[in-house]
Write a structure and sequence with these properties.
By secondary structure, this protein is an alpha+beta fold. The chain has a single domain (2-112), classed as 3-Layer(aba) Sandwich (Aminopeptidase). 24% of the residues lie in helices and 40% in strands. The chain contains three helices and six strands. The protein has helices at 2-5, 49-64, 79-86, and strands at 9-16, 19-27, 35-40, 69-75, 91-98, 104-112. A hairpin with a 7-residue loop joins strand 2 (19-27) and strand 3 (35-40).
Length: 118
């Protein structure tokens, strides 16, 4: 909660029909290049919730935060996230390993406030 109090992160609870379905957040806001995270609980997956959340929250972040772009790191093994990304207007920009104990091989996608010229 320290990150929320310090305004470095914004975190939202996702409800579906009044029940907890997951959470999402924009993390590292002061860097001007924050990242977006999304988690949908297993019983709520496949209902289009992730797509609705991403289609709303990424544009909201770009419009309302003083940032250059939002990074959306996706684990290459997460087929549901990859399918979701394929439906969005995000640019693949990097690949790296992240995580402390459990290493993830991620592709990083970005949504720019002003698209890069290169």
């Amino acid at each position: 909660m320290e990150q929320v109090e310090n305004k470095t992160d914004l975190v939202w609870v996702i409800l579906n029909e009044g029940l907890f379905a997951g959470c999402c957040g924009i993390h590292g806001i002061p860097t001007k290049q924050p990242h977006f995270g999304l988690w949908i609980k297993s019983g709520q997956q496949g209902k289009g919730i992730g797509k609705k959340v991403v289609n709303h929250m990424l544009p909201w972040g770009i419009s309302n935060l003083d940032i250059e772009f939002i990074k959306y790191p996706v684990d290459k093994r997460n087929q549901k996230s990859i399918h979701l990304i394929s439906q969005l207007n995000l640019k693949l920009s990097d690949n790296y390993e992240m995580g402390n104990q459990k290493k993830l091989d991620v592709d990083e996608y970005r949504l720019y406030k002003i698209p890069p010229t290169h």
